[in-house]
Amino acid sequence: MLEAAATSFASILVLGAGFSIAAYAYHKSYKHHVLKKMANAFEPGDPVLDLAAIGKNIPLSKTAAATHWIGRPEQDIVDDIVAGHEVGHYHLFIGEKGTGKSSMLLEAMRKIDGDGVAMFEAHADLEIFRIRLGKALDYEFHEDYIGSYFSERGPRDTTALLDIERALNKLEKVALKRRAKIGRPLVVIINQMHLIRDDEDGKDLIELLQQRAEQWAASNLVTMVFNSDDYWVYERLKQLATRMEVLAITDLPKNLATAALRNYRHRYFAEDLSNETLEQIYDRVGGRLNFLNRVARSNDMLATCDEIKQVEKTWFLNQCWILGEEMDDDVMDQQKWA
Prior knowledge:
Elements: H1 2-40, H2 47-56, H3 65-68, H4 75-82, E1 90-94, H5 101-111, E2 117-121, H6 126-137, H7 160-181, E3 186-191, H8 200-219, E4 222-228, H9 232-237, E5 244-248, H10 254-269, H11 275-285, H12 289-297, H13 301-320, H14 331-337
Parallel strand pairs: 1-4, 1-5, 2-3, 3-4
Helix pairs in contact: 1-7, 4-5, 6-7, 7-8, 10-11, 10-12, 11-13, 12-13
């Protein structure tokens, strides 16, 4: 009986030790695999570039810029930032919608084939923001970790903000290894920062991102680039900013705007516009790239200009709350729903 008990105890001990060693080996290999996947997300080639090329019918070759993109004065600055040559700061790109901020970032990424760069779109919902961050970094937030089956608390028993913090912790480890190997920082671009809600959750998220951006800029690990169409993001970031650089993207001046319109029209219709027509269009819609592209695609360019002016005028009047002397106070409510 004593011999049988000893045999059973030895068997249980061997099985327990075997399971423990296997679990420890899985845990270590899983953590190594997570860092390897995240590092692979910053290798050359980026799905963002492929989607942009398909959506805009742009070739992926590095010689496409001269015929499909309009060179802006800020492009050289953006190229240095995205290529990792501008260190010690994080950046806020701010400007009206359609001025070409995202296009310049994509063009800078295309020149280096997305090497060392990750880009994703912000969102008002923190869960969706978390998922998009995980997709850009190729990080699963331990949702595929089978070791959680044997634990009391799962890895998703937490909040989206804590998951974002964990993802940034992993990114920091990857950046440390890459800096020792290559010597330049990673670049993380968050597009459409203005979509984050200006509430308590949004403030917590922006504070978290800015703290990491300040820390990484000081250590030259990661260069964060925030892209926004709205001014309130700058007001929020400037309160704690010490290493932030702001790049204001405005409409094109007249000479560049007319050159852009001429290139767009020649690309879409193989038509060379006269200087008089170019000046007429510029006088109507100015130098915003989004407007110039829409006008160049249309058959009746001047009519499209008038449509753009009407839409912008309607939006402006809805924002101004113009009141006359003989109008009652409740007209504001009527105008709000008109």
